[in-house]
Amino acid sequence: MYEPVSAHMQDMGFDRVSTRRGNTDDLFHIDGHDVVGRGTTTPTPIDEHHLRQLHETVYLKKGNAQWVHFSYGGYTRAARAFADSTGIALFEFKLGGRIAPRSETATQCYGRKPLDRWKRQIIWSSIAMAAASLVVIAVIKVPTVGWVLAVLVLVAIVGPVVRLVTRTG
């Protein structure tokens, strides 16, 4: 449901994180191995009273899990102080889809595990860039390579078109 939240939690090292819609339109649930949380989609800041209610009704029941909360509207100063005193990790959605930590516990969550997904993306992007560079260099240095690649691309495009035309004809 809230895929960026799941991906963000998994980047921090939490396993099998999922999200689902809550009982009200502005609430969603976060569940995973060693993590439990809630999130709100309202643009108003979350106050201490709201976090205190969640702490008593949700978080204390999951004593061993990391407690998290996500908000679009941010948090009041009192809410951040309460979260720091109880160990709730607060995160806020920022412009452009970025998620930022808003409590000391949230900042500490980033130390759990390296961002493996981002490392893999960088490695594969580097490999693709190197391969593309080698192809360009080969085409420039050896014109025959360019002609061979052009023929391969032409065959790859024309082949399916011919098959499609012969089926419909």
UniProtKB/TrEMBL annotation:
Transmembrane intervals: 122-140, 146-166
Keyword set, alphabetical order: Membrane, Transmembrane, Transmembrane helix
UniProt KW Transmembrane helix keyword: yes
Protein name stated in the entry: Restriction endonuclease
Annotated source species: Rhodococcus ruber BKS 20-38
